[in-house]
Amino acid sequence: MQHTVLVTGGAGYIGSHTTRQLLHTGYRVLVVDNLYSGNKWAIPEQAVFVELDAGNREAVGRLIHEHDVTAVIHFAGHIVVPESVSDPAKYYANNVANSLHLIEACRDSGVRHFIFSSSAAVYGTPASIPVDEEADTVPINPYGFSKLATEWMLQDLTNSDRINNKPASQCFNHVALRYFNVAGAALDGSLGQATPDATHLIKVACEAACGKRDQIAIFGTDYDTEDGTCIRDYIHVEDLARAHVMALRYLLSGGESQTLNCGYGHGFSVREVLGMVQKVSKKRFAVVEAKRRPGDPPALVAEKTKIHEVLGWIPEYDDLKMICESAYKWEHKLEQLHRKPGMETKAG
Ligand code: UFG
Question: Of these four, 58, 79, 127, 235, which has the most CB atoms within 10 Å of its CB?
């Protein structure tokens, strides 16, 4: 049976990479995206696209029936940690309230399989590194809280079906994927991150290497880490997209609800990342030292055993050089996209 998957945020960075892999694997894909930060050109032609807010419960419910949707992958959401600190209501409205409306639309229309883009931000500042899925979840910013709240909603819905003694074949199941730091682009330069006003380290560094920015700031050089800058676990977007396809197959074949880290299990400091982007780009862009950014934990690195055991996921692009090279190549490509009518990114 060919399943139809509803992908919210399929015009965005991770959503578009996943949509492409789903189509290659043989799924039909219905993309729902309000184009707030996504780009229409990033949606593969074979996908059906509806410009719509993922939180529009009635309209999403209608689409689920019309397209006979069997699973939902929910990417749509705001993702910038510092913005969540300065404008928390924006994050609770979109990441929590809209997620609830979408989950209700799924429940009302009998969609039982749900994959959610969660985040390592739910851990806050972990007591130990690498952090596993059983660790305490104590977010230190509204973004992390908004992701955790949606995880709770999904878990409660999953539990309620069991408590209400629904037959297993009718029970709601979900996989929450806790992303670490997603970066990179398709190796052939065909797809990548085009998020407007980017704030993520590798993207910003590539923009500096391409001359789109005069300099890049290191936010905090006095952390308790080897070189004083924050450590993150950078994961290539294609590996992450594949984790979604594998999670979908897992749920469709009767797998139980899961919460899984998506990371490689080792981290790099901000200075190491900037050094790598300078190396692959051969551009010595200016780097300045700045104050700490609110909401940043010193180090976040995934314990990756569980996703391997549950889904059989094995990374293919676990290489910081490859991640930075592909991100830099894509940044050049974006320049050309800007010049093509209808292909502009919001940033340009
Ligand atoms: N950083 C800089 N300068 C910049 C941009 C970032 O020094 O111009 C630093 C940040 O202070 C931080 C590190 O680089 O120490 C990574 O910051 P990013 O903004 O790239 O990413 P975050 O770690 O803040 O957040 C990302 C995702 C979250 C996810 C988190 C998990 O946006 O969804 O990774 O580690 F939760």
Answer: 235
Exactly one of 27, 143, 223, 317 is catalytic; name it. Answer: 143
* 3 state SS of 215: strand
Pocket flag, ligand 1, residue 201 (CB < 6 Å): yes
For residue 293, which atom of ligand 1 is closest to its CA?
A: 11
Q: Is residue 229 part of a domain?
A: yes
Q: Which of 263, 184, 266, 275 is nearest to 227 (CA)?
A: 275
Closest ligand 1 atom, residue 229 Cα = 15
Confirm or reject: Cβ of 181 under 6 Å from ligand 1: yes
Instruction: Write the residue with the smallest CA distance to atom 12 of ligand 1.
Output: 230
- Domain range for 216 is 4-339
Sequential pLDDT tens for the chain (348 residues): 789 999 999 999 999 999 999 999 999 999 999 999 999 999 999 999 999 999 999 999 999 999 999 999 999 999 998 899 999 999 999 999 999 999 999 999 999 999 999 999 999 999 999 999 999 999 999 999 999 999 999 999 999 998 999 998 889 999 999 999 999 999 999 999 998 788 999 999 999 999 999 999 999 999 999 999 999 999 999 999 999 999 999 999 999 999 999 999 999 999 999 999 999 999 999 999 999 998 889 999 999 999 999 999 999 999 999 999 999 999 988 977 776 655 555 533
**Three-point CA angle 89, 90, 93, nearest 5°:** 80
- How many domains does the chain fold into? 1
Q: Is the CB of 85 under 6 A from ligand 1?
A: no
Q: Is 234 in the pocket of ligand 1 (CB under 6 A)?
A: no
Residue 217 CB–ligand 1 contact under 6 Å: yes
- Helical spans, DSSP H, in 192-267: 201-209, 237-252
Is residue 187 in a domain?
Answer: yes
Active site residue 223: no
Name the residue with the closest Cα to ligand 1, atom 26: 181
Residue 301 within any structural domain of the chain? yes
Q: Name which of 110, 137, 181, 158 is nearest 258 in CA terms.
A: 158
Residue 167 is assigned to a structural domain of this protein: yes
* pTM for the full predicted model: 0.96
348 contact partners, CB below 8 Å, separation of at least 6:
338
List the CATH number of the domain containing 333. Answer: 3.40.50.720
